[in-house]
Amino acid sequence: MSLARTLWDPLHVRVLRLLRDEGALSRAELADRLDIPRPRLLGELDRLVAGGHVAEAGPAESRGGRRSTLVELNPSMRFAGVDLGATSIDVEVTNGRLEPVAHYSEPADIRSGPKVTLQRVNELLAKAKVEGAFAHLDGIGIGVPGPVSFRDGVPVSPPIMPGWDRFPVRELLTREHGCPAVVDNDVNIMAVGERNAGVAHSVDNFLFVKIGTGIGCGVFLGGEVYRGTDGCAGDIGHIQVDSHGPVCTCGNVGCLEAVFSGAALAREATAAARSGTSPALADRLATNGVVTALDVAVAAVEGDVACVQLIRDGGRRIGTVLAGLVSFVNPSMIVIGGGLAQLGHIMLAEIRSVVYRRSLPLATGNLPLVLSELGPRAGVAGAAVLASEIAFEQA
Predict the structure, then answer these.
(1) Whole-model pTM above 0.90?
(2) Topology annotation, domain 201-372
């Protein structure tokens, strides 16, 4: 959390955040940590208790004299984090401390449109409610695989999401569940999740690169997500890397996403299987009828030369783009996540090699380039963080 934001946020937001991140605290500890007069804090706590946001949690350890009473977030507080991928839906319900209470994951096709997809999200949340995960949601966060107007809570001209342009996602979820909702790009929620509970915990300046069906970059600067003027900062998948490359879903030619992503890798792997360049992939194609990015990862580990080369070629493309970002932003960490993170250390080694070779030594001398610690949970974890933020602001 940036110092500027911490200083200027309303007191009730600062109290609720501290209880979320630290757990039960005494009134004296809260006053000390927030550096505010105790009478002012007590008045705010009374209001939060009356509103059902905070509850007493028994006596604190003695600090000499009369024992203070611990306070905590209301144990019934619940947030929902939703991560919509191009081919999947992930839903997680957490308590006020952002600890998972229920989790659901299933295949889906984002191209089926917003009504079908969001209806399924609502059904999964209804299932969680029936199974006792919550009585009422205090906030919902959702990430979608395309550009988002964060201010308006709607996707904007998303290339792989037909029918979603300007669809009122936030409004629909708020109306359906009777709580505030927030909508963001899927890679931004992954970055938020990784900073809150992953390898980038408390790192103020870092890049989170999602490599999956699409490619995007969550940009954390000064402890905050940098979304840009219109919410499309970090859309690195549409940086051109090959002027003679394939046509991208955005309509341009040779975008990074068009030459190395889940779909692009599957395309190249299929060609390698059919040509006989990769015996391992040829066997999988004959057996299963298709080859996937996971097949490439498995075959590479088994020593298939063509698969190792496919991964290295992709890693080199990613590394070239990231080297430019390192020179421009000078981050203190780069985190690699998304479905193709399963390509593992072959890809990571190639990305590192290119970034460290092409960027200035001053920018890379102390630059960790690592895989996501949260893995596939990064998205829902980050969405739940955003859900808690919007709920606290409206408390």
Answers:
(1) yes
(2) Nucleotidyltransferase; domain 5 (3.30.420)
